[in-house]
Amino acid sequence: MGATLSAIRAVAPKLAPSERRVADVCVERPQDVAWWSAADVAEHAETSTATVIRACQNLGFKGFQHLRMLLLRDLGSADTGSAGALTVEENGAGLVRAVFGELATDLAGALAPLDEDSFERAVRALAEAERVLVVGNGGSGPSAAAVAVRFILNGRHAEAPTDAVIQQLTAGHLTSRDVCLAVSDSGLNSVTLRPVEAARAAGATVIGVTSYARSTLVEKSDIGLVIGGGSGPWGGLGASATVVQLAFLISLQIAVCRARGGSAEAAAETFKQIVPLIHP
């Protein structure tokens, strides 16, 4: 429920230009598209009705009517009271409420593109790996570092070097018993893709986390994990994408911890080792 737009955004970037315009119209005007005909969408996307139907199918829907049904369902389930809070504010508390409202909406639909079987495969691979290398750069760098720390705190050895050269050198020394977990919102960051290629050449299992199903990262990964991004007024600033990415990686780490038989008590014991370093 509420995940239709996330599903569209995940696939749209690799559509043909005319089909991408259809996807853009759906994301930008979902309230209108839910009531429009295929001809109406075609007019606003400057394409044909046949292209609208083909675009819907390539986005993963049975057709345009299937897409309309899901948009109507999402609109019907939306809380109109909270929806009003998403109005763009200039500053102050209203802006904070609007940003949080957008984040909540995007988080609610972020798992729509995720393939559950792929997620389970990723959990098993991370739980069984001898060595885990986490790679992330740019806006995804902090998320990569954060999940590596959480792995370590829960007894799962992991490393997340911040230097691009060290990332690539480390990836080249992985083996078939290891995993490279690569994080990139766009799935197109060449700095992240280079260690991914090195890890694949070394025989390691590559798990890619991105917001776009047809990205280069997914193509180069053994296991692709696709999650939603954001589409509101702050989506272009990476607000929702960053929050969704970190929330997903934390969830992945928790699932790996459970698969390895980890517990909150074990994490607490690890944390006790850190306390004297922080506060002697």
Automatic annotation (TrEMBL):
Q: What PROSITE patterns does the annotation carry?
A: HTH_RPIR, SIS
Q: Which ranges carry the SIS domain?
A: 122-262
Sequence ranges assigned to domain HTH rpiR-type in this UniProt record: 2-78
The cross-references to Pfam families, in alphabetical order and at most eight, read: HTH_6, SIS
Q: Which GO terms describe its biological process?
A: carbohydrate derivative metabolic process
Instruction: Extract the GO molecular function terms from the UniProt entry.
Output: carbohydrate derivative binding; DNA binding; DNA-binding transcription factor activity
| Annotated keywords | DNA-binding, Transcription, Transcription regulation
InterPro entries reported in the protein's UniProt record: Homeodomain-like_sf, HTH_RpiR, RpiR-like, RpiR-like_SIS, SIS_dom, SIS_dom_sf, WH-like_DNA-bd_sf
State the name under which the record lists this protein.
Putative RpiR family transcriptional regulator
Organism in which the protein naturally occurs: Rhodococcus wratislaviensis NBRC 100605
